[in-house]
Give the backbone structure.
Amino acid sequence: MESSGNEFSTRAVHAGRIDDLNAGSVVNPLFLSTTFERGPEGEVAPKGHLYSRLSNPNRSALEKLLADLEGGHEAFAFSSGMAAVEAVFQTVLKPGDHVLLPDDNYHGVVNLLKTHYPRWNVTYTAVDMSDILKLESAILPETSLIIVETPSNPLLKITDIAAVAKLARARGIMTACDNTWATPYLTRPLEYGIDIVIHSSTKYFGGHSDVLGGALIIGSNANLGSVIRNYQCAAGAVQAPFDCWLLVRSISTMPLRMERQCKSAQLIAEALDKHLGIEKVFYPGLSHHPGHDIASGQMQKGFGGMLSVLVKGGQPEAIKVASALKLFRHATSLGGVESLIEHRLSAEGVNAKSPANLLRISVGIEDPNDLIRDLMQAVG
């Protein structure tokens, strides 16, 4: 994809630019029109757009930007992260297929497979993908899709993306990597051989907890791109123009936010790792993390803004800690400028797998010293 500049932070500002030939505005115009004029002879979409379910200037700008940042050929913006996941399932799977996914994968993906796909005899197996041998042994003749999530949610396991992609390609299996937590600022899965990158753009791309969205990015597989684009247009779970506009605006500052969040998360993980009230810290930036070496190769500028901890004293003590915090908000989601903490088991519902004493932490852009002091007073 063409963009201005070579460095990530420059492309984050310029790759999604719309040239405003009317007013010359520096900020992208917002196109709320649902339909666009034909040409004087009735030509369809003479300026590139016909109807906003099919395409819209703001969505096209966002998709160009996302493809550029992920090093992909084409991107597709959806109304939510789960709408993007559903697009993968609908375009890759067929009746009788089998899916492999991480054993601590985001519970919404598991729920989608468990609740809605048995009618098509689609099955799935959860496996520890930090162990490539376990993954290989779980492959069945009908396996058609492997989903990677690294770091995983919420145990921050690290998967060797290149090893999974190599294994899958040798077996003719499609791969999809959820890159929401790492973002292309840290990791670009397509460069490791992954077929489809998935994002909940609500999180670090949005960065302000005020826009809902999802995205898929693919490499040079034109046939796959055509199938996904046809599904996106036909099914209609597309992202609204204003939400696309918000994301393009927000992505401009994502490199700055991510740099701060990664550095702060590292400091917080190191501080909590020494605290007697904490049983365990899950963060790949810690040298004793089992996936630290792989993460050091895959995550180029840091280890992310997410970590999880096990609080001594079980669930009651974990909830007590979350409730005692002053700066951290006890709320679901992640990736925003404000720091959040969540008792994860409470949020996972019927597919809950998280330890009862686990707190998931999303580090914002506040001063890390203030955040550490807040955590220390809450843990006691």
Notes: Residues 8-251 form a domain with the Aspartate Aminotransferase; domain 2 fold (CATH 3.40.640.10). The mean pLDDT is 96. The radius of gyration is 21 Å. The first strand starts at residue 74 and ends at 78.
